[in-house]
Amino acid sequence: MDMKKTVKKSNDVMAQRLYAPYAKAEWGFINHWYPVKFSNEIAEGAVVGAQICGVPLVLRRSKGKVYALKDQCLHRGVKLSAKPMCLTEDTITCWYHGFTYSLETGSLVSIVAAPDDEIIGTTGISVYPVEEVNGMIFVFVTSDDFDDEIPPLSQDMPIRFPHNNERFPHPLWPDSPSVLDKNVVCLGIHRTGYANWRLACENGFDAGHLLIHKDNAIVLAKDWAVPLGIKPVSDQATQLVEDENGPKGFINMYFTEHYEPVLENKLLNVRAAGTVPKYFRTSMFVPGVLMVENWPEENVVQYEWYVAITDDTYEYWEVLVKHCENDEERQAFEYRFKNFYEPMALHGFNDCDLFARDAMQNFYADGSGWNDEQLGDMDYSIITWRKIASRYNRGIAKTPRGVAGVVKGASNVLAEIRGDQPGAIRDKAE
Amino acid sequence: MDMKKTVKKSNDVMAQRLYAPYAKAEWGFINHWYPVKFSNEIAEGAVVGAQICGVPLVLRRSKGKVYALKDQCLHRGVKLSAKPMCLTEDTITCWYHGFTYSLETGSLVSIVAAPDDEIIGTTGISVYPVEEVNGMIFVFVTSDDFDDEIPPLSQDMPIRFPHNNERFPHPLWPDSPSVLDKNVVCLGIHRTGYANWRLACENGFDAGHLLIHKDNAIVLAKDWAVPLGIKPVSDQATQLVEDENGPKGFINMYFTEHYEPVLENKLLNVRAAGTVPKYFRTSMFVPGVLMVENWPEENVVQYEWYVAITDDTYEYWEVLVKHCENDEERQAFEYRFKNFYEPMALHGFNDCDLFARDAMQNFYADGSGWNDEQLGDMDYSIITWRKIASRYNRGIAKTPRGVAGVVKGASNVLAEIRGDQPGAIRDKAE
Amino acid sequence: MDMKKTVKKSNDVMAQRLYAPYAKAEWGFINHWYPVKFSNEIAEGAVVGAQICGVPLVLRRSKGKVYALKDQCLHRGVKLSAKPMCLTEDTITCWYHGFTYSLETGSLVSIVAAPDDEIIGTTGISVYPVEEVNGMIFVFVTSDDFDDEIPPLSQDMPIRFPHNNERFPHPLWPDSPSVLDKNVVCLGIHRTGYANWRLACENGFDAGHLLIHKDNAIVLAKDWAVPLGIKPVSDQATQLVEDENGPKGFINMYFTEHYEPVLENKLLNVRAAGTVPKYFRTSMFVPGVLMVENWPEENVVQYEWYVAITDDTYEYWEVLVKHCENDEERQAFEYRFKNFYEPMALHGFNDCDLFARDAMQNFYADGSGWNDEQLGDMDYSIITWRKIASRYNRGIAKTPRGVAGVVKGASNVLAEIRGDQPGAIRDKAE
Asked: Which stretches make up the Rieske domain (chains A, B, C) (predicted)?
């Protein structure tokens, strides 16, 4: 019998109506700022490709500045990044037919073999605003018809400290640095996850998923006192952030009277372990950026982004930020990152999260999961996120046209997996 | 010109109407008993996953008994088997958020981090009856809304001997043992085939496919006199089994006056080879189990199951059964199985069948094969099977929701083929 | 903003209407002659499979003659080529149930195990005309309902010389040999490309794509003076070929007053390199065969075919033809082919074309590219091709039934990539 039918769900029809836009955002939220590369991934002159919310992007660094254009030549639709060609410092040229675009405006400034073509100057490809800050490159990814004013990067980032100390008190740890601060160092990794980006977001701040980290080596090594779970006990547990011209999101008020740690489950005979108090706080902001304060250690904060690539892949960003006043502090942070944070936290600990998100994908891939899931009280913050994301996103990305990932199981994708090279001779037709 | 159009087919519109339900059963027949694992594949305490008719199953052995539940946590839909977690002997816990289910009833008995959640006791996941007999584990796979009485395993198994000796005489070989008999040993293998389960069924008892075995090593080694084919010469050739509260299927009455061996094809100048008479008989039963009596050798019977996993994959089961009165006989059977039956029969001989079934898949994958196929007299038993299966199946499995295999060419499936691990760092977005 | 919307395109709605049939031909043009194998790929007695325009083909050479039949047994739809079985010189037998077809007519002449079946002689599979000439095997691939007269191979081949010298003067190079000439040797390769066949066609004669060859080793080694591009300066630049009962296509009148080489792009500061004049001419004919005269060297001509396999794969044929009056000349040509033409021209040079075509596939795979592409003056010849192909093709291939490549991401295809063998034992169901 189907017991599911009989039970009360937090994601009932009423709730689903309140986050309907979110449920439609398979391809992500468009017209937002997203991280695209670390600064050291784009050397001077380099041309690299990426895809965000189904929008193919080509990035080039010229005279120090990074430019982002649509990675789809308007002529025959090939990726400029497939075979980089740059003939001047101010342009990028399509390797196929020589269509040459201004890095600044995206307009077609010349065609290598047709300098006098009348099409020149009358058309072009979309360009996207880029901000480079403290070793990270952000791009404002827009739909082709976007023509509003471009909001500052800070609107798509977490709230900052000490600015918000009074509003969101945190007596238990030092002020968290921000990617946008002066004198900070940002160190991290990014990799592709095989799930929808929303499933990744919801894992990040999920108060109920501590269980998957119970046995992590870093937890045992540091003897952290991690509760079995954290239970919201007032409607203040999750506090909204709806700053005009500022971040939109919410904060889980852990380690306040609004949350109660769950230390034991008698029926199942499980008890929280660890003796060293471990204080932290998670908050989540549109378009999908997580801040974990006081993590993995004091004076460090962990940011995470879950950036839609296609409707079933996302780029997972893990970035640690720390104030470093001088080279010595920077080197110490880099040393600790390479030898401790990266292997034990960003991998050892967060690999469990990556696994968990990908494990949800089959349930949601055909769309049925959004109705069949059965959320409860512990998912309070997830419902909160879905609603606020529905209210404040700047657009639902459309299913893209002519982009990899739209046609599932396409032969060119399988050929790449098979390792077929254009040079290979095969006389079997299939 | 399309000569197909002009010809008379056994699968004409009239016939197709009589087995319409079968033609709709892409995902298999639900509400039946199927083999899921061999006993030695689930050790005490072990948790393993499987999928049958699109239903994900998680199996756990606790205190000797095997339990089967739906392998899809009602909360976020992950597989419990993806990362086994068991906190008590009577429950299985979802590794992600700690939802804990009773092995007996499937009801939600606790949540690790929310012992007092009011949802507890009000919901649960489906459980499935399990029978373990003579080294095989069977599960009764149901739709979520099934609430009839559960039929005995014997109803979904072949008829038994000597009970049916008078009804279906077989003077040419000893009584075939049954998986359900006392003092039998069942030895076999199972593996995934890449075709629809129905194509596999139809290969098993197909009187016309002897040709693919003509050159098999075991046939030559034993010098078996295998005819080119066996031709039905009366409408008694195929005898129906429609026992009330018993098996439903049919028997090919080989080596009776109802069948005539074809020993020669003059036009093609082919002749049957072999000098040693080889007697056997095939019969097929709902939901898709084949019995080959007196095979591969005297006193042994071969059972085969073709169990739908998805609409284009099935689990192929090959099981040999023999009466063994003591350890010595058991050891002799195990020795002969490992060194002769498994390599030369279950592989050497039946690998040709696996190949043949998979070779049909492209023709049927888009659904067109069910109309375009051109069956003739030799397919008499196949039409018989389709009709009886249509009449006696207990339900057509629906296309599942939120299950692997529904979305073809999904990125997470391709990633697994590519060997991508959650731990891998990739900075290319596509 | 979407600058694309504002601009004039050569592929405007009006133009698109004129080549609508072409835009529908995902699976190719049916009822045409296509190369299927080189003669040395089918030895006496050999049976090989191929697929053209979604039509599965099985080829057998018997008593020197090559026969082509539909590679789909009418009984259960398996490929005869999956496991070749030939019992007489005049027939091919299906390995599964012994259905035996006449090589000449395709009619069912016997069934191994049912020599008296009344279906015999009443049905059969399609056969396809075959022509073998100068080391190449061509097949006339038809729809099942084709019953017109079969046109000569020459109608689907390029125009010939010297026959057309006056009509299409070429003072700059010797007369190009033809595959159909006496005393010619044809040497080449063929391989699978992962794009739609039309994208491959359009790359072949594309006057605007010289850029991708600018840096090719053969160009530098021979110091060829290759312009940046070639610009049509009169409406005579592209001359139509619409011979009654003859080839249909067009010629790019390079190196005449109708084309102007572009040697420099001042804005981008690029200049054509090379000092050795290099004369050649491209022409394209229905159903998709390119002729490059005087290429790669004098007295040699390069033919290319782009043969649809599925809607997203095609077979790429590169064939060099040369008159050889005696064995010595033949050996010299073979020597030069193996050691120079194949590695540096057919690979080094044309690999760039293969790459370019496959790079377009994502843009066109979902059908959107045919509207979103933005063609200009340089694409004059591409529009010409689309129109003439729309006018003179003998049929648009339908999406095939029951053929590999129709269902994308099918499990049996993924299994083959994964390297799963029928013999493998796997007890995980997924």
From this structure: 33-139
ipTM, 2 dp: 0.94
- Does pLDDT of A426 surpass 80? no
Q: Residue B116 has which token pair?
A: 């007092």
Among chain A residues, the shortest Cα distance to B405 is held by A362
Q: Mark yes or no for CB contact C409/B408 under 8 Å.
A: yes
Q: Hey, what are B260's tokens?
A: 């005539």
pLDDT digits (tens, 9 = 90+) for A310-338: 999 999 999 999 999 999 999 999 999 99
Among chain A residues, the shortest Cα distance to C53 is held by A429
* pLDDT tens-digit map of C25-68: 999 999 999 999 999 999 999 999 999 999 999 999 999 999 99
Q: Which residue has the higher pLDDT, C321 or C254?
A: C321
Q: Which amino acid is at B100?
A: T
The DSSP line for B4-15 is GGGS--TT-HHH
C171: which residues sit within 8 A by CB, 6+ positions away? none
Residue A361 with chain B: CB contacts under 8 Å? 410, 412
* Residue corresponding to tokens 């049996």: C412
Mean pLDDT over the full length of chain C: 93
Residue of chain C whose alpha carbon sits nearest to that of A146: C1
pLDDT in tens, C172-223: 999 999 999 999 999 999 999 999 999 999 999 998 888 999 999 999 999 9
Q: Quote the pTM value.
A: 0.95
**Identity of the residue in C1, C262, C378 whose CB atom sits nearest the CB atom of A97:** C378
What residue in C sits closest to B365 (Cα-Cα)? C402
Residues in chain B with CB shorter than 8 Å from the CB of C122 are: 6-8
Interface test with C, best of A30, A96, A103, A107 (most C CBs within 10 A): A96
**Spatial separation of the C-alpha atoms in residues A55 and A214, rounded to whole Å:** 38
Q: Are B322 and B184 in contact (CB under 8 A)?
A: yes
Per CB-CB distance under 8 Å, the chain C contacts of A71 are: none
Residue that the structure tokens 């040393």 belong to: A335
Of B123, B412, B430, the CB nearest to A312: B412
With CB atoms and an 8 Å threshold, state whether C422 touches B355: yes
Inspect the interface and report whether the beta carbons of A78 and C372 lie closer than 8 Å: no
Burial tier of C2 (Cβ tally within 10 Å: 0-12, 13-18, 19+) = middle
Query: Could you report the per-residue pLDDT of A57-113, keeping only the tens digit for each?
Result: 999 999 999 999 999 999 999 999 999 999 999 999 999 999 999 999 999 999 999
Whether the link from the prior residue into B287 is cis, omega within 30° of 0, is yes
Instruction: Report the greatest alpha carbon distance in chain B.
Output: 81
Average pLDDT of the segment spanning B231-238: 88
Distance CA C33, CA C136 (A): 12
Segment (H or E) for C303: strand C301-308
